Amino acid sequence: MDCPFCQLDDTQTIVLSNELCMFLQQPLARQKGVPLEGAGIIVPKAHRETAFELTPEEWQATYALLHEVKQYIDIHYATVGYNLGWNCGPAAGQHFPHAHFHVLPRYADEPMIGKGIRYLFKGELNQRSQKR
Q: Per residue of the chain (132 residues), what is the pLDDT tens digit?
């Protein structure tokens, strides 16, 4: 299987992990001042295509690791908030067929401060056709 989260390479660093999942960061995200500073993903160690396939134990492990990740990011980066999310399926922007939970720290000096996940979907560029 050619899955970047099942066969990690040097584009991802395991920062934290537990028995069932791990928190990965790309090297660029570990640098100060870049747009995705501190960002990373929590992925199950077992191959699961989307979040809908996670076991109850993997959900619990993701929840537990998320709290460790928040503590890690709070200590190492000057965040003022977070966006958290799953993309499930190509139509939702999932580019790799292995479930991954985005952890995106937010910063006071960002041009998009105050814009949440819904901002993308509510905008004029995302208006649906009236034909259905």
A: 688 899 998 889 999 999 999 999 999 999 988 989 999 999 999 999 999 999 999 999 999 999 999 999 999 998 999 999 999 999 999 999 999 999 999 999 998 888 888 887 877 777 877 775
**CA gap 105, 10 in Å, rounded:** 22
Q: What one-letter code names the amino acid at 124?
A: E
- CA dihedral for 111, 113, 116, 122, sign (positive or negative): negative
The pTM for the full model equals 0.91
Residues pairing with 104 in the sheet: 83
